[in-house]
C-alpha cells in the first residue's frame, strides 16, 4: 500500500470539522471501512468498483416499476418466467429473440419427454427446422 493511502485516512480534515457534522460522520465511516476500501490495492483480483454487477441488474431495476402493472399476479409470474428464459439464453451466449423464436417454432412438434432439447444449453439453432423460424 502506498504511503498516501496508508496515511491519508489519518488526515487533518477530521480535526478541522465537527465529529457530529455530516462531513465528520462521513470521514469516520470511511475510516472504519478503510481496509475494505483499499483492498483492491493489495489484491489484483478485487475490482475497484462493481460496475459489471450494476450493469447486469440494471434492466431488472428499471423494469421493477413496469412489473407493478403486469395486470394481475399471474401476469407478473408469466413476466418473471419470460425474463428468466431470456436471461438464461443470454448467459448461454444465445440471442434471446432467436432462441425464443426457435423454441416457439419447435415446441408444438416436441414430445414432453424431449423438452430438454429446447433448453438453451441443448438447442441447436443451426437445425434447419429452427433456422427457418429465425
TrEMBL record:
Domain Transposase IS66 C-terminal: 84-121
All copies of domain Transposase IS66 central, residue ranges: 11-77
UniProt xrefs under InterPro entries: IS66_C, Transposase-related, Transposase_IS66_central
Protein name, UniProt field: Transposase
Highest classification ranks of the organism: Bacteria, Pseudomonadati, Pseudomonadota, Gammaproteobacteria, Oceanospirillales
